[in-house]
Amino acid sequence: MRKPHYLIYVASIFVFSYKCLGNIWALYHCFYSIFIRRKKNSILIMILKIIISIIFPLDIFFFFLFAVGNRMVDRRRSGRHLNTSVMASAQSITYKGAVAMTQLSGGGVMAANASLYTVLVTDQPIERLRLKRPLGNMEFWHQRNEGTDPLGLQATHTDELDAMVPSQLGPGGSSSFPSLSQLEEPPTPAPPRVMNSGGSGSPLGSPTDLEQGLSQGLGLNVNSFNSNGTGNSSLEGTPPRKPAFHRGTSVLQDPGAIERGIGLSSGWSATWNGVKQWWRHRGRYKEWRRDVRWAMFNKRVRTATEMFSELFGDDFDAIVPIYPTESVDRVIHEWDKAAAALERAQMRLREISEEDTYRVGPLRDQEEEKKWWQLRKGASAAKIKRLKSKIATLAEKTATLQEQISTERDSILSDLPSTCFFATFKSQEAAAIAAQANLNPITQRLFDVQAAPSPDDVNWPALERSWWQRQARPAYVIPLILFIMLLPIGAFTGAFAQLTIAFCGNPENPGPAADQWFCSDDRWAVFFRNLLTSIAPSLLLSLYHLVVLPVLVYYAAQAEGRCFSLSQLDRRCADLFFYW
Amino acid sequence: MLGGSVLAELPQYLDNPEAIWNTLSSAIPASSNFFINYVSYRALVMCWFRLFYPHQAIVTCILKWLRIVPWAKTARDKAIEAPVRNCRYGRDIGIPVLMNFVMVLAYAVVSPLILPFGLIYFIGLWAVWRYQMLYVYQRQYESGGQFWPFVAHKVVGCLLLMVLFTSVVLIFKQAYAQAAIMLVTLPLYLLRFDMYLTNRYDAVVAQVPLMAVHKAGRVAGVDPDLWTPPPLRQGAAGWNPEWGKVWQWWGIPRYTL
Predict the structure, then answer these.
(1) Which residues contact A28 (CB under 8 A, 6 or more apart)?
(2) DSSP secondary structure code for residue A399 in this structure
(3) Radius of gyration of the CA atoms of chain A, in A
(4) Which alpha helices (DSSP H) does A425-522 contain, by range?
């Protein structure tokens, strides 16, 4: 942080100089009114102006305080008091949102923003597009009837639904759903064609190829979907998921069953299917909806992996799912508060210990000194005992909270991810093409691909919303936006000007507080009434503009859930302020 | 601006509807006094006040300097004692810039006296903002300059509001020909200009040119930690109480309904 420029002081002196000139004029006017014009209410005017004239020169004093305050802010933020190792880790390339490209000769690293290698895949309503064939003999490659229909276009019964979704959650929140990195290797030794760039023939052949492609294309482990299988180890100990594909390849042969089984077909059949499914699962609606969401997520991830692998081959890196953060964040906040209290108690304990080593004041009479030290040690001993007890309690609390954080994080990472996810690539060209293309299957709409925001620009709460929430939430937020837009704050503050009349009334029609001191003719009562009607509205309006309105507008913009990046959210706030 | 004028004279309109035209034709320019006062107040007072009170931490530091509130002692407390804040672009562009722009432009023809005060305000605001961007605020996110196109289009919107407002005043003053000429010509020109801005500047950067990335370096892989929010990383690395917020240390909640 740079030091404040000297021009700030020059400007401040200029501003306060003309204010002081105004004060001098006010004093002269007061003198003129009292002693030359001899006005009747001059005494009150004199009192007011003397008060103002005393207050305003204090502006000079306050200016220095503000300047000092700014310097204090600068000094405290200079970083001299911070732990450098903490700062160093926070400066690492990953936490700056960059990906290392090459090593430089001087030992540095050439890096690029990670968003250049990443796209954001957001969900769209799963729909089958009824496209008519333009030419009679044209056949889409994925509709070849080789007993496979990896993209789910053939009809079958609905029992295969269970193979694709977690049938039951195990203890500790773990699901029986497979970890796709643990898919069994197919019997054929041939390399998976879905991962080779420029593969020939049918892009998606046998289900075994698909499985193999999934396992290597996704490269999923429990907590990260890194194709190198070198994801972070933040979740050691998370129970692995069992591969559901082993229950039979019929699911892959006919994933279309999933659509009908969970009512994802389009048109009137979607409504009828939905009703049938609701009736079938009426006793376990929540679990059924959860299974549906799992199925939809897996469908999108599977399809995205297939498409990206087919189109970009080796350039496709991995899928990174998005998980909700609120529950873990809440526990971390509690831990942070407890850790701060623990550190303060430890600091206080150290201070007390250091105080005991110094004499305070001059040497006293021996008897008095002995008594003084006894008192002091007694007091210190009691304090130290209390502090130590407090430190022990806080240390235990922080340890408990740390365990809770780990448990909660494991639980979240084992559970249902968000409907949106990131897809990373190894080349910027592949990411740029993916962000500009429609990568849905030919007859289906599943997701929308766009360029990812910068890692420090991601609005995580918005990425936890599904397409339905993104469509419906703006409607829920409209009442708040209308309230903000239509609130007549000017009229409300203007009402303050009428407040005294409301309370005190007039001589013909006295108000409810007419007999109170506030409504009397006492000079101080008049002064306070004038103060209320003149300063209160301006103060209220300023507070509303500075504090209340920005928070309300931000809340409305964030609650809409449509801004995937913080910069987009900021522009939405600016939009709402503009319309306001 | 129109509403204030209408509300102020509402009883007269109810008693004598025929007087609406005559009354409004004088009330609207008369209401410009308030806006001239407001713009001059912002130019001469609030613009500079912002220098002395950029955010609430100033008051806290002064109280601590006066020993009314104790200074922080632990490293954790010191880190958040005078936290670095980022500029609330949404609020600062929406209100101090665009709202005042609308006011100054709308009365530019009806009451030209507002123009010099508007000029003083924006010159002062430019200086103050420049200083604060350098010495006070620290950016929290990087958008790649996406606010500039936003402001450019909104300025065109402000000009459109100016045309509409001035036309209404001309209509109330029974200058129908002038109002018609304004309404027929200027909005079309502004729309054309807005389309020009979109085609010339927005469209060319909407997607990255493929040739620019065709020979860009390849990487072995992207660390998934980059796309993992801090609470879910190993050791919650990168977490701080204001992580992921668009306005840091301004008292906004991270999660909403």
Answers:
(1) none
(2) H
(3) 35
(4) 428-436, 460-463, 467-486, 489-497, 499-504
Chain B: residue nearest A566 by CA?
A: B246
Q: Which two tokens stand for residue B92?
A: 């600062």
Structure tokens at A70: 């700014």
- The DSSP-derived string for A29-82 is HHHIIIIII--TTHHHHHHHHHHHHHHTTHHHHHHHHHHHHHHHHHHHTSSTTS
Task: Indicate the residue type of B85.
Answer: R
Distance between CA atoms of residues A74 and B171, nearest Å: 56
Query: Least CB-CB distance to B244: which of A89, A315, A460?
Result: A460
Q: Among residues 339-358 of chain A, which lie with CB inside 8 Å of chain B?
A: 339-340, 343-344, 347
Instruction: Give the separation between CA B148 and CA B134, rounded to whole angstroms.
Output: 18
Report the alpha-carbon distance of residue A150 to residue A251 in Å, rounded.
Answer: 9
Nearest to A95 among B84, B154, B237 (CB): B237
Give the angle subtended at the CA of B187 by the CAs of B184 and B193, to the nearest 5°: 135
What 3-state DSSP class applies to A317?
Answer: strand
Q: Measured between beta carbons, which residues in chain A are less than 8 angstroms from residue B58?
A: 66, 69-70, 73
3-state helix, strand, coil in chain A (%, to 5): 60, 10, 30
CB within 8 Å: B51 and A12:
yes
A224/B94 Cβ within 8 A = no
Q: Do the beta carbons of residue A449 and residue A121 sit within 8 Å?
A: yes
Strand-pair partners of A423: A119, A319
Identify the closest residue of chain B to A79 by CA–CA distance: B79
CB contact under 8 A, A326 and B233: no
* Other Cβ atoms closer than 10 A to A28: 11
Cα distances from B19 to residues B101, B148, B166, B168, in angstroms, run 31, 45, 20, 16
For residue A327, give the chain B residue with the closest CA: B231
Closest CA to A470 of A191, A124, A198: A124
What is the phi/psi pair of residue A547, to 5°? -115, -55
Q: Which residues of A368-390 are buried (b: 16+ CB within 10 A; e: fewer)?
A: eeeeeeeeeeeeeeeebeebeeb
Q: Tell me which chain B residues have a C-beta less than 8 angstroms from the C-beta of A80.
A: none
Q: How far is CA A144 from CA A257, A305, A316, B81, B87, in A?
A: 17, 20, 26, 66, 57
Q: Which of B77, B83, B91 is closest, CB to CB, to A550?
A: B91
Residue by residue, pLDDT tens for chain A (580 residues) are 445 555 556 666 666 666 666 666 666 666 666 666 665 555 666 666 666 666 555 555 555 555 555 555 555 555 444 444 444 444 566 666 787 777 677 777 777 888 999 999 999 887 766 666 555 444 444 444 444 444 433 333 333 333 444 433 333 333 333 333 333 333 333 322 222 233 333 333 333 333 333 333 333 333 333 333 333 333 333 333 333 333 333 333 444 555 555 545 556 666 777 777 777 777 788 888 888 888 888 889 998 998 899 899 999 999 999 999 999 999 999 999 999 999 999 998 888 877 655 545 555 566 666 666 666 666 667 778 888 999 999 999 999 999 999 999 999 999 999 999 999 999 999 999 999 888 888 777 888 999 999 998 999 999 999 888 898 899 989 888 888 887 766 666 556 656 666 677 666 766 666 677 777 777 777 777 777 766 666 677 777 877 888 999 999 999 999 999 999 999 999 999 888 7
- The alpha-carbon gap from A16 to the nearest alpha carbon of chain B, in Å, equals 10
Token pair listed for B63: 């109280």
Tell me the backbone φ, ψ of residue A119, rounded to 5 degrees.
-125, 155
Q: For CA atoms A247, A250, A253, A254, give the dihedral sign.
A: negative
State the best of B2, B222, B257 to mutate against chain A, taking most chain A CBs within 10 Å: B222
Under DSSP, the state recorded for B128 is: H
Nearest C-alpha in B relative to A333: B241
